[in-house]
Structure to design on (328 residues):
């Protein structure tokens, strides 16, 4: 059997999930990997056969998407050319983790594909979503179309939705509490973030920055460049995680029993939905409309947070079901 696994390269969550899924897929046959996008900081251990430009949302520095840089990075002729050159008919199964080039290639050529992603869960009307007329709802729906969907979310909102894929390195991690707070907010530059965190001086902040190549300390804030192993160590020993409205990062913190505070990116509908879902569980959120984040952060630091999420290790069973149901 030949399997094509196409992965979105914007952010780290898609590739982090793929690192867990690829070895499982390899039990069933030869797996070719396709990645499009330019914003990931983590890598796959396996060889990537197709590295495409795709269409990435570029992180800004003030808490949102940089629309200008996103527009500049678009290359429609290249997108169409890449669509035409993927040999889709060579594969018995095409899986898509919110990757647009292969998704639209399949749609245009009438070839079946499986959307295997967190975004796939939003095909269900049962998934929590804030009331919004944001155009990004259409992006979420049409960005990477598929003929079948298997989704992941914080809860099993529908019969095709499963709990998060938690990496083995996280499941096997020894946790502790050294009192610091870990921060990962890739859409906020250090110059905006540090003055904010220094207003909560009673704790130590360990910030992993997408905008700094060097480590440095400023008061009670320690900044370092993104490094997967160092981040895991910080997360395992922290009191809590302050992060964006992504999916994998918050899910891992919840699995480890860490306190969680999320600040979803402005104008990013998926992150707004994730934050809205977490809010339903009683977890705190810093919305873009909050002009002063300090009271929310201070309250989060000072209050205990009790939550229990059960994320069973069901990834192998999900992959087995997908292969048996959709491979041709």
């Amino acid at each position: 059997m030949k399997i094509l696994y196409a992965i979105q390269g914007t952010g780290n969550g898609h590739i982090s999930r793929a690192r867990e899924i690829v070895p499982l897929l390899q039990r069933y046959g030869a797996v070719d990997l396709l990645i499009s996008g330019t914003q990931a900081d983590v890598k796959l251990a396996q060889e990537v056969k197709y590295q495409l430009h795709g269409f990435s949302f570029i992180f800004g520095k003030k808490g949102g998407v940089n629309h200008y840089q996103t527009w500049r990075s678009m290359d429609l002729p290249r997108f169409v050319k890449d669509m035409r050159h993927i040999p889709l008919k060579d594969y018995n199964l095409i899986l898509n983790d919110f990757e647009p080039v292969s998704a639209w290639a399949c749609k245009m050529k009438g070839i079946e594909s499986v959307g295997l992603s967190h975004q796939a869960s939003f095909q269900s009307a049962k998934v929590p979503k804030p009331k919004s007329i944001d155009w990004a709802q259409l992006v979420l729906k049409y960005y990477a179309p598929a003929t079948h969907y298997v989704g992941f979310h914080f809860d099993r909102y529908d019969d095709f939705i499963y709990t998060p894929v938690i990496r083995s390195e996280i499941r096997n991690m020894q946790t502790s509490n050294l009192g610091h707070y870990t921060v990962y907010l890739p859409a906020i530059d250090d110059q905006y973030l540090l003055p904010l965190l220094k207003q909560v001086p009673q704790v130590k902040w360990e910030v992993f920055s997408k905008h700094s190549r060097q480590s440095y300390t400023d008061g009670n804030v320690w900044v370092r460049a993104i490094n997967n192993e160092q981040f895991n160590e910080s997360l395992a020993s922290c009191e809590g995680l302050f992060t964006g409205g992504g999916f994998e990062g918050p899910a891992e913190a919840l699995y480890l029993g860490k306190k969680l505070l999320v600040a979803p990116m402005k104008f990013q509908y998926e992150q707004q939905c994730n934050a809205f879902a977490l809010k339903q569980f009683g977890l705190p959120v810093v919305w873009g409309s909050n002009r002063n984040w300090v009271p929310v952060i201070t309250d989060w630091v000072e209050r205990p947070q009790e939550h229990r999420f059960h994320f069973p290790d069901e990834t192998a069973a999900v992959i087995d079901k997908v292969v048996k149901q959709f491979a041709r």
Observations:
- Residues 220 and 278 are 28 Å apart (CA to CA).
- The mean pLDDT is 89.
- The radius of gyration is 19 Å.
